[in-house]
Specification:
Strand content: 15-25%
Number of helices: 9
CATH superfamily: NAD(P)-binding Rossmann-like Domain
Helix content: 25-40%
Structural class: alpha/beta
Radius of gyration: 20 Å
CATH architecture: 3-Layer(aba) Sandwich
């Protein structure tokens, strides 16, 4: 991965959730360019430059903040990856997706160490998937259905109410890179078999990791005003594009009517994972990044990686 060339001074950046895939990707891009303080939740086989901190424990946070100098930027990436949850899980999701953010920022504020800029990783799932809506912009009504998305939206509201002028809220489309294809595989592969629903022409948005870095870099370089932004590739893709990208063969063709049946089963059982993914397979789901691209350019896409 190449270095990011910054026009700003060397900054002190606190990255919460640094050991996740997106966090690791960002750290590799900025190592050596800025002073990074990488927070992770648990001990593990990671480099010594990671700081273990339980953000659900305010006493641990107080100890960390008191011995730290003020950070210029907080990049908050904490969340449950690839899980939507059920209604009964709402409390658990709120603890991880919202309370961790509130705990950290409240302690920083109390100690007069609130960073000048807060970059928060949210999700396009806050809009809620709908069969009758195909294109989503930042001014669209947020109507999340899963505990994951609901608590991400709660975190957004907390930031807007308490740190509005300091906050950049990034709603990520499904993320991928050359080395991270989970979000593509789940839309093209079932077990050992590639598949597509109907004729594979339905459209969707994805987000290359480098476009996340470019968005962060835009904030660091004072090019992007604070606010809410969809982060997605400039191009929209069809499922046929995804299958072409992964070099699929022996494609299993699934009738749309079968997925509709699965959708209704997910709706009845309250399984958000089944319900939302069925909607994605049956309808166009485009999350435009036009707003942020008024300030910076996105060049990375599925076709050039």
């Amino acid at each position: 991965m190449g270095r990011v060339i910054n026009k700003v001074k060397r900054l002190k950046i606190l990255i919460a959730g640094a050991s996740g895939y997106i966090g690791s990707y960002i750290c590799k891009k900025y190592d050596g360019e800025h002073n990074l303080f990488k927070l992770k939740y648990k001990n593990g086989n990671l480099k010594n430059d990671y700081i273990t901190l339980d953000l659900t424990n305010k006493n641990e946070i107080k100890h960390f903040v008191k011995k730290s100098n003020k950070f210029d930027v907080l990049i908050f990436l904490v969340g449950l990856a690839h899980k939507k949850g059920k209604d009964k899980d709402l409390k658990d999701f709120r603890i991880l997706n919202k309370s961790t953010l509130v705990n950290l920022l409240s302690v920083l504020k109390k100690n007069k160490k609130t960073p000048s800029k807060i970059i928060f990783a949210s999700t396009i799932s806050v809009y809620g998937e709908r069969m009758d809506k195909t294109r989503y912009y930042e001014n669209c009504l947020a109507n999340p259905t899963s505990p994951y998305a609901k608590t991400k939206l709660e975190s957004e509201k907390y930031l807007l109410e308490n740190f509005n002028k300091k906050s950049w809220i990034f709603r990520f489309a499904p993320v991928y890179t050359k080395d991270f294809n989970v979000n593509i595989d789940r839309r093209t592969k079932f077990g050992r078999f590639y598949y597509k629903v109907g004729d594979g022409s339905k459209k969707l948005s994805l987000c290359h990791g480098s476009n996340i870095v470019k968005s962060i870099n835009g904030v660091l370089n004072n090019k992007i005003p604070n606010g809410i932004y969809n982060i997605s590739d400039q191009y929209n893709y069809t499922y046929n594009d995804l299958l072409s990208y992964v070099g699929s063969s022996n494609i299993l063709f699934i009738p749309s009517i079968l997925v509709k049946l699965i959708f209704y089963l997910g709706e009845i059982s309250g399984n958000y994972f089944i319900k939302e993914n069925s909607i994605k397979l049956l309808s166009n789901n485009v999350y435009s990044s036009k707003k942020i691209r008024n300030f910076i350019n996105f060049s990375s896409n599925l076709m050039n990686y």
